[in-house]
Amino acid sequence: MDYEFSRNSFDDSYRIVFSMGHEAIGRWLFDEVGTELSHVEQYVEALAQLENEQQWRGHTFTLTANKDEVVVMANAMLQTPSDEAQATLSAQALTFYDQESCAACGYDDFMEMLSAYRDFIIRYGRR
Predict the structure, then answer these.
(1) Higher per-residue confidence, 62 vs 77
(2) Which protein family is it in (predicted)?
(3) What is the pLDDT at residue 118?
(4) Which region holds residue 65: left if phi is over 0, alpha if psi is between -120 and 50, else beta?
(5) pLDDT tens, 25-41?
(6) For 70, which of 42, 65, 77, 104 could close a Cys bridge (C-beta 3.0–4.6 Å)?
(7) 37 in helix, strand or coil?
């Protein structure tokens, strides 16, 4: 899993980019965690103390983790679409949607990424 965090010094905006197949993790980080150091640290602490599978449901994404794997899934994917809505989705569109809305990685890789993001926020956080 490759990722990049950057900050535009002109307008103080942040950019989070993840490799193909892991885009949902970047979206979760941006949408659910944001740039508040305390939010990042809450997840680092909770995941470090993880004993069993645990789930955190946010506004847009749900994070499910155990000591082996972390899965980020859009809340919309957790709902069963109506028969009519399902019939209108093509297999190609659904595959594209899934790639942008669901991602998984190893627990250790996820913790390493959160640590790197925490360091980024400490270094470039809003002043």
Answers:
(1) 62
(2) Belongs to the UPF0231 family.
(3) 96
(4) beta
(5) 999 999 999 999 999 99
(6) 65
(7) helix
